[in-house]
Design goal:
single chain, 123 residues
């Protein structure tokens, strides 16, 4: 059974920092992309940041310059470094992993999600 696990959430004051981690049981060579999403109460889930392939990144406009998605090496967790946090960053943060596997002549992609980790930023 595939596992995607987030950690690192918590309560922080505005202006502070947190680092989230995402680990997965998926074979690292079958990972197409890893992304962080967030969902606040009463709001739709939104993309925060993505790490695509060898190192391309994609960020929501609201977090550009403040958040950084990265990993140390191909087998390390994927991190989301969040700086200059604002109360509006408060949400459950979820890790998304897209697996890509070649089966015969077919290319199959599957999406997996973690349970999420709560980030609360107080004003």
């Amino acid at each position: 059974q595939v596992q995607v696990v987030e950690s690192g959430g918590g309560l922080v004051q505005a202006g502070g920092s947190l680092r989230l981690s995402c680990t997965t049981s998926i074979n690292v060579f079958n990972i197409k992309l890893v992304g962080w999403y967030r969902q606040a109460p009463g709001k739709e889930r939104e993309l925060v940041a993505q790490l695509i392939g060898a190192g391309n990144t994609n960020y929501a406009d609201s977090v550009k310059g403040r958040f950084t998605i990265s990993r140390t090496n191909v087998e390390s967790p994927v991190y989301l470094q969040m700086n200059s946090l604002k109360p509006e960053d408060t949400a459950v943060y979820l890790c998304h992993v897209r697996e890509r596997v070649i089966v015969g002549l077919d290319l199959r992609e599957s999406d997996y999600w973690g349970q999420g980790t709560q980030v609360t930023v107080s004003s």
